[in-house]
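[job 4471] stage=fold_predict status=RUNNING
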Amino acid sequence: MINELIPEAKKWAGVKSIIEVKRERYFKVNKKQENEVQYYISSLPIDVKFIANAIRSHWEVENKAHWVLDVIYKEDASRIRRENAAENLAVIRRLALNLARLNPMKNSMRGKLRMAMWSDEIRHEIVFGQNQDKV
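[job 4471] inference complete, writing structure tokens
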């Protein structure tokens, strides 16, 4: 059936399903609606709930990590290319992101990282998980 719908599918080993996802977003600020359609090629048998959860899990990672790394750290725009520098800096960024995420302080990720940049006390609390006065 897949080969009938998409002749190119026979070139993809193990394809069992092709998924179409329609997304709709509404922006309150400018009162505009945005629609998008995405297609996924999968070796999974058709199980709508399982596939939907897999797609949501993927986007959860994208939203929690990659988006934050790009928006806050401007990782995609980084010009660091020398030897292992880009990989080393990526590890440090992820470490800082995870430490900030674990901190119970109520603030946005950008706010937590900015406060840590400005305050030795808050930076210590984020890195070591406790207030500096208590150490």
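[job 4471] summary: Residues 17 and 42 are 5 Å apart (CA to CA).
[job 4471] exit 0
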